[in-house]
Amino acid sequence: MLAEIKIWLLLLALLVVSSNMQLHVHAVPQVPCFFIFGDSLVDNGNNNGLQTKAVSNYPPYGIDLPQGPTGRFTNGLTTADILAQILGFDKYIPPFANLASSDILLGVNYASASAGIREESGSHLGIRISLDKQLVNHGTTFSRITSSLGSKDAATQHLNKCLYYVGMGSNDYLNNYYMPQNYATSQNYTSEQYAEALITQYGNQIKTLHSYGARKVAIFGVGPLGCTPFSIASHGTNGSLCVDKINLDALLFNKKLVLLVDQLNKELTDAKFIYVNYLGIASGDALLAGFKVTNVGCCPVDEIGQCIHSETPCLNRSEYTFWDSFHPTEAANKVSAARSYQNLLVTDTHPMDISHLIKL
């Protein structure tokens, strides 16, 4: 009976998402603008022109998009794309790399695959746009909006009404701390010290974002990093379903992130910050959501865990949680977007969900 109730609740949440999409497309969006900071989970093309292995503008990436490969690291839409739909935007938020001046007031996607909170994270893969550099790019956007609207005050007032998505930290673990052959962080920090150092830096970065006018900020925690097919294949699980040590570090980071959100809300009383429990959302019973394959990706992958160019992926993509060895399928992204926008469980977000955040 409990399982049936859970299935019904999940279907109801996804139905709400679909309803919102239908109600708001071609109407006035629920927020005037949407800005996205993050890594490959929401990168939609910023890495395409960079000298890096962390690119996905080739098939079979984008196989379920009408335009084909775009630089998204999935078969279709990212969580940020789906949130943009739910919010009522009639097109996806464009990447900073090829931003048209006509789009700038509606928002920008700054996300970059392999980027982290720390500058060096992901550097073994090549060039990437770290969170610090994404904030520099947002400073450029702020200047352009100031010019467009005629004053800094007008730009700030506009940006105060926007929704900000911030999701970083995964690469600081998977492409830094857990790669001792490339980075010294695991020798220089205990797990506790590393999480604390990351959170301290992250807090300063989010305060910089606040200084540019951000007042409604959804901060996504890291997911179950030890359950990615790459972690399982690289580290082994010792009989567990996932790599427990990596998941414990992800949980440690997220617990400190919740405290940071509380601290930011106490210090910056003119703004509201929320935490999205991506780890909790992604750790639920996959079978209840209709997923059947959770430990391998849908596409054949290369040595760094990305889809092999032009190889044929699985046909039953809606039954897979992972597209390649790191990134969720569009079907999994729909669940994450639905539950971050409107709670399915009270633990999904803290202290409120996005649907309430944007009404403040």
**Main β sheet profile:** 5 strands, mixed
Percent strand equals 5-15%
Rg over alpha carbons = 19 Å
Kindly report the spatial arrangement of strands forming the biggest sheet. Answer: 1-2-3-4-5
List the uncertain runs: 1-25
Which structural class matches the secondary elements? alpha/beta
Instruction: Please give the alpha-carbon distance between the first and last residues.
Output: 37 Å
Shape: globular
**Helix share bin:** 40-55%
Please explain how this structure is put together.
This protein has 360 residues and is of the alpha/beta class. Helices cover 40% and strands 6% of the residues. The chain is built from 12 helices and 5 strands. It has helices spanning 2-24, 79-87, 131-149, 152-160, 170-177, 185-188, 191-211, 229-235, 244-267, 278-282, 330-341, 354-357; strands spanning 34-38, 163-167, 216-220, 272-276, 349-350. A 5-stranded mixed sheet has the order 1-2-3-4-5, covered by helices on one side. α1 (2-24) packs across α11 (330-341), α2 packs across α11 and α3 crosses α4 (152-160). The longest helix is centred in the C-terminal third of the chain and has 24 residues, at 244-267. The protein is globular. The two termini are 37 Å apart.
